[in-house]
Amino acid sequence: MIESISLAPIGYVKNQFTENTPADQIRPQPVQLIIKPELVAGLMGLQAGQNILVLFYFHQAVPEGFALQLHPRHDPANPLQGVFATRSPYRPVNIGATVAQIESIEGHVLTVTGLDALNETPILDIKPYIANFDTAPQFAVRQVADIAEARHKIDELDAEIIRLFGHRAKYVHQVAEFKKDVTEVRAPARYEQVMQSRRQMAVTAGLNPDVIEQMYKLLVENFIKEEEKIVRDRIGI
């Protein structure tokens, strides 16, 4: 086994956070990834709106300052955990990983949100975030032991579906902001496109497309009414 390795950063983080700051305060803020100019060709294919996995080095963490067991977030109220079961920056090898969203790309500079790294943090690598590879198989179907476990899994799936519907609603509200008049809300061509694509998705998933279409008609009609209300309230009708 190789006992040690040496890595050269591909760039660094540029933002206003110079001291240890809670991740939930850093992530909403846009930060810049300054990539070495000689590596700019490697950014080809990345685009705004895309999610990426950023690997970086916790350069402010003291190498000897880690404990193999700790209370997450340094809070004694949290049960003691092994360091590999936590997201602590104080680790045997100080490597961090965060999924961030690209806001813009200008030459060798990427502006992203969602990254919880401090100013001048060395960037080790950037990879595209691919849901099929990078998402934990939390909702993969497996054989259950009894009916109670099956029902619990159904409840988990329903909770996730409803959460995603909430995200969908937020995007629908954003769509409404681009509509100048109520007459623009109902878009027949788009409506037909949505229904046809959802029917195809249903077939691919082994579901009855007629049932899925009826479900989506109810859902979309509700969102259309919400759009219409948003537009009316904005233009004062």
Distance between the termini: 72 Å
> Care to count the β-strands?
8
**Oligomer category:** single chain
Count of separate DSSP helical elements: 5
β content, as a range? Answer: 15-25%
CATH architecture classification of the largest domain: Beta Barrel
Report the biggest beta sheet as strand number plus sense, adding barrel if it closes. Answer: 6 strands, antiparallel, barrel
Count up the domains: 2
Range of helix content:
25-40%
> Could you say which structural class the secondary elements and strand pairing correspond to?
alpha+beta
Sheet with most strands: strand arrangement: 1-2-7-6-3-8
Give the H and E element order: EHEEEEEEEHHHH
CATH uppermost class of the largest domain = Mainly Beta
- CATH superfamily annotation of the largest domain: YaeB-like
Average of the residue pLDDT scores: 91
Helix/strand layout:
Elements: E1 11-14, H1 23-26, E2 31-35, E3 51-57, E4 69-70, E5 81-82, E6 95-106, E7 109-113, E8 122-128, H2 131-134, H3 147-177, H4 188-204, H5 209-235
Antiparallel strand pairs: 1-2, 1-8, 2-7, 3-6, 3-8, 4-5, 6-7
3D structure, described in words:
The protein has 237 residues and is α+β, with helices and mostly antiparallel strands. It folds into 2 domains: 11-59 and 94-134, Elongation Factor Tu (Ef-tu), domain 3; 147-235, Chorismate Mutase Domain, subunit A (Up-down Bundle), CATH 1.20.59. Helix content is 35%, strand content 19%. It has helices at 23-26, 131-134, 147-177, 188-204, 209-235; strands at 11-14, 31-35, 51-57, 69-70, 81-82, 95-106, 109-113, 122-128. The protein has a 6-stranded antiparallel β-barrel with strand order 1-2-7-6-3-8. A two-stranded antiparallel ribbon has the order 4-5.
